[in-house]
Amino acid sequence: MAAISLGPSPARRDVLARRVRLLVSATIAYNVVEAIVAITAGTIASSTALVGFGLDSVVEVSSAAAVAWQFSAREHAVREAREKTTLRVIAVSFFVLAAYVTVDAVRALAGTGEADRSITGIVLAALSLAVMPFLSAAQRRAGRELGSASAVADSRQTLLCTYLSAVLLLGLVAHAALGWSWADPIAALVIAGVAVKEGRDAWRGDGCCAVPASAVPASATAAKADDACGCRAGCDCC
Fold it and tell me: Is the pTM of this model over 0.85?
């Protein structure tokens, strides 16, 4: 007889919910500072990539704020009721980000202006590349254990910001050192494609951990080979 997978206890859910609220608050605070610095530095250097990165931080704040609103409720049932609305906000944030990055990348490829090099932008991108993966991984683990698709989706938004940080860093360094102004917009178009996919999945609630382990019958668990994280078959969640 297959063992029945137990989800987190009410006490554990409260601990995880508090952890998600803390991580979301840290994400919002960091992205507010990041947006101010990036937009200011981008305006000074006439860098559309830096300004776009700053606007991405604004989108990330909207996504994190939606999760903060969901987890501001103390009752687990209320948080679950807010899940769909939160996922829709996150999905729209992904679509807005993809649209802006695409337009910005096309403008850059069309040669709408030569940007100056920005040491501030390089430092900011490197710092974000170091900070964002830890915030994303911590929230993703908590969201998966809690069975919250919105928390996992927001962690993907943070992870996408990590990718954008890497793209921005490579673009700024390549432009400053080698004069390769085309490298950043090409990579940005790839990121835009990823953002559209993540936005579509969030809109449909197709996260790997949208279904908590406790909600999966023992027979289905055995048939689908879901893992201890409650992830669906074929998902690399842990």
Answer: no
